[in-house]
Amino acid sequence: MRTQSGPAIRLEDYKPSDYLIDQVELDFKLEPEETIVTSTLLIRRRDGVPANAPLRLHGDELELISLSIDGTNSTNLCKLDNEGLEIAAVPSSSTFALNIVTRINPTGNKKLMGLYRTSGNFCTQCEAEGFRRITYYLDRPDVLSVFTVRIEGDKKDVPLLLSNGNCINSGDLDGKRHFAEWHDPHPKPAYLFALFAGYLCVI
Prior knowledge:
By secondary structure, the chain is mainly β. About 0% of the residues lie in helices and about 50% in strands. The chain has strands spanning about 20-30, 35-45, 55-60, 65-70, 70-75, 80, 85, 95-105, 115-120, 120-125, 145-155, 160-165, 165-170, 175-190, 195-200. The protein has an eight-stranded mixed β-sheet with strand order 5-4-8-2-1-11-14-13, with no helix packed on it. Strands 9-10-15-12 form a four-stranded antiparallel β-sheet, with no helix packed on it. Strands 3-7-6 form a three-stranded antiparallel β-sheet, with no helix packed on it.
């Protein structure tokens, strides 16, 4: 059981995010120790926010592989630290697409926050701030997004591939791996994101 508490967040200190994320596409290629997560975020600058406002995303124990803005490799434009990443030079347009590829280790995730592996199953725990251990994101409850999720894994090890919303596609890939795609039409904060991949049985 977790006993530590996070820093106090006071209402008087609340400030709306400069940016919002209207749509999220996530692609998980599940492996026990090297899962690749590709996220495509449709980002919108809030009305009244200056065009030169930096974009700050939360992230925790992620390995950044690549980052691109509107299809252009922009990995060299982001600054990484222990709390996430910051992009100082964002497009002047009010909306843009941000593509981020990260690598995580579900088996080595002993904090049981984000995506972790237990008893051979992949599970997520994103409440209250666990989504930032999956990909770089505006991991705060006032940012609501529509999620579309693709999950790929080994058919034998993870016969069930589940996420939020409705299953819109599924199938076999190469005989050993399969995939499922899920779409949740209702905008939600990242802490409500859920994924399960593994085996369930009725007792």
